[in-house]
Amino acid sequence: MNSPLIPDGVSTALASTLQPNVSIVVPIYNEVESIPRLIDAIATHLGNAALTYEIICVDDGSRDGSDALLKQLAHARNDLKAVILRRNYGQTPAMAAGFGQAIGKVIITLDGDLQNDPSDIPMLLEKLDEGYDLVSGWRKNRQDASLTRVLPSKIANWLIGQVTGVRLHDYGCSLKAYRSELVADMNLYGELHRFLPALAFIEGARIAEVPVKHHSRQFGKSKYGLDRTFRVVMDLLTVSFMRKFLTRPMHVFGLFGLVSLLSGMSIGLYLAILKLGFGEEIGQRPLLILAVVLFLAGLNLFSFGLLAEISMRTYHESQGRPIYRVREVVGKKESVR
């Protein structure tokens, strides 16, 4: 029986010569022991599901021989592409490199440490086929459930949900399924890979979450530390700004600028009345300094707002990116404006 992602009447053998159903993107950093098992597991479960696929492993500057092993396996297999980065850039650039190589109709991401289970991939695809654009995994029963990992994760998930408006149980789960056209509209930088559902929401995506299996780490050690907290907070502020003011930055800078200008002018008017009307000395008053600072800050904020507006227009127009996203067009092409 063909997968729902393979058109009716098209055999799996014929489909293998066409665009693959699924592209599996796996960032790799020092996972030499896990790589063979992971690739075999992915191939087994996707093969059993009668899905055409490609596996894209992106080596992010590994120092344990992962890059050499990936190149060896890529020469021996016809379903694996090894992308070797020049140095360690981080998980977000590694995922972006994988997205740039993927040609499947659906893109699946998962970690290379065997903690995500490839057997869950068909379930994500079935959920995606219900009309969603992104399906995110939820590690409902985590196997790395130490207090130092779970508590910060729960706090982060709650905070990200409150700020972005996309409430998921598990933002940190790498096992996700995306429609390829959705990924094509998103540019990644910084540490934004964990905010992909929020970025997809900005693009108007329909998002679902499903519980997935989670395994304890078999080899090596975790690459995450407390140092990522600062980066997460900074990127969260970036995503929050993008969600609210991506195409109208003047609304935030202009608002604060207007408040600052009016406050400075009001204080200045009050001091002018004291000086001119009552002859009081105002030169040594802290209010005078405050009035000047508020007035200048207001002018600066307005200037930032105008520059941001120009930058956003340049960003959209230079890339041909409209400020809207069309989900579908129904009717004759001649009727589309």
How does this structure look, described?
The structure is a single chain. The chain is α/β, with parallel strands linked by helices and 337 residues long. 47% of the residues lie in helices and 11% in strands. It folds into two domains: 12-245, Spore Coat Polysaccharide Biosynthesis Protein SpsA, Chain A; 250-318. It has helices at 12-15, 35-48, 66-76, 91-101, 121-128, 147-164, 180-184, 196-202, 228-245, 250-278, 286-318; strands spanning 22-28, 53-59, 80-84, 106-109, 134-138, 176-179, 207-211. A seven-stranded mixed beta sheet has the order 3-2-1-4-6-5-7, with helices on both faces. α2 (35-48) links the parallel β1 and β2. α10 (250-278) runs antiparallel to α11 (286-318). The chain is elongated and about 90 Å long. The chain starts with 11 loop residues before the first helix and ends in a 19-residue tail after the last helix.
Topology (elements, then pairings):
Blueprint: H1 12-15, E1 22-28, H2 35-48, E2 53-59, H3 66-76, E3 80-84, H4 91-101, E4 106-109, H5 121-128, E5 134-138, H6 147-164, E6 176-179, H7 180-184, H8 196-202, E7 207-211, H9 228-245, H10 250-278, H11 286-318
Helix pairs in contact: 10-11
